[in-house]
Amino acid sequence: MSANSSSSFPSSNSSSISLYHFLQKCFSGPAGTISTIAITVCSLLLVLPLCVYVVYLGLKQRHQRRSGTAASHSDVFTYNMVAVELMNIAGYLLCCGGVLTGVPVMVPMGICLLSVYYFGQQLFHTLTCVERYVAVVHPVAYLRLRSQKGATARDVSIGCVWLLCFANISLLPCADSNSMTILALCLEVFIFIVVSFCSLSVLCVLIGPGPGSGGEGRQRVDRSKMRSFYTVVVIMGLLVVRVGGTAVYSALYVSPDVGASEICSLLLASTWSTLPCSLVLPVLFLHRAGKRLLCMNVNRSVEGPD
Q1: The whole model's pTM is what?
Q2: How confident is the model at residue 65 (pLDDT cuts 50, 70, 90)?
Q3: 116, 172, 213, 223: which one has the fewest Cβ atoms less than 10 Å from its Cβ?
Q4: 169: nearest Cα among 222, 91, 228, 242
Q5: What is the chain's percent helix, strand, coil content, to nearest 5?
């Protein structure tokens, strides 16, 4: 049975095999079918309700926001992250439908959407960490970035992320599997270095005395910085898991001693590491939105008697 399962895969060590073809074979196998169905169900139960609620709160805040005030950079990154997550869910639904119904075009379409999600999730996490880093380490510059010029720079960064995500789709059918694996590993290592730098920089600011000493204002600033630090650390911790899994997968992928069926099993297992990453930004957004709504309700109750 092992021989039959490995014969259904192309040789993973051949540089002429595209990762696109390998993923199609992997998702269409028995183990791939079970794993795809399981992660699709988990995404529908855990991620989709959060995304829908984030969209609902975002629209509600937009109606309640005063004219001339824009959404925060973190919120805009979260909205784009929700769009990426919805594409991920659609990709898994297409893959799941393709392997169950046997429609050949559905699995390739799902893989394209999943590739957008793979790059987009990490890059939007990185933008969030950089935004928190600038807010804590360079507060004066961050206040300037809240202007129209800052919004333009943010939108350009978001546009570059989406451009890279869709450019990755064009590389899937033509690039060989080894090159794509090495590219993915280099991207994750680079992102890990950036997020680690942001985390250590924020930690150094928290440890340092800073201007002024004591007082309620200082405690309020420290609480704000601590929230930023927790955001960066949580993202970094999840990226450690992803980078570690990708490093192991990449090392085994290029090894001539490991069969294609074993590599497929490792790939399917590594996809589960993306599920916690999908929950971070929506949960943090809901936490911030809950505090905003609470403050608005308190202000309205105070102004009510007048």
Answers
A1: 0.80
A2: low
A3: 213
A4: 91
A5: 85, 0, 15
